[in-house]
Amino acid sequence: MNEALISNWNKLVGPSDQVYHLGDVAFSDPNKAIQILRRLNGTKFLLIGNHDHKNLKNSKFVEQFAWVKDRYQLQYNKKMYVLDHYPLSSWNGSCYKSRHLHAHCHGNMRSDGLLRLDVGVDTLYAKYSPINIDTAEEIIQEKQQTGFDKYFDNRMKDPSFAEAYFQTRQEISVWQKLGKLFKKS
User: pTM above 0.85?
Assistant: First the structure.
């Protein structure tokens, strides 16, 4: 399994790429983890997971990362991404459409309409490979198209529904304008 993970990583990550590892690097002793980390392409940054604490006591393990933090806010393509090992239900900027990328849940946590994604290597999306941030954004956008939005988008494909919808919206707009006129008098 280790060899497959290393191969998958190095197929997607080049030597000059940056990788934010969202925790639980290895369930092995630090020396074995260090051997594996040295074989992985890219500059690695670690967001501490619940299974990393033992290995973090080893300075050679820590040296494999450009930095080690509990949480990080990344600005990318005019969006803020809050990176953390653990899933959060509220994070900095969540009400302003910032995104949250996490691990820990092994693909078993619903996003519940939040701009949040489990990017752990063992998720349906990752398929035992790192997930590029652009891919993560695409998945988040796709997951937002659920419930009423998906229903509405499908209904709008019907020309008669779309026409009726726009007619109704115009009528509502007229009534709103009339309502404002009557409030002024």
Answer: no
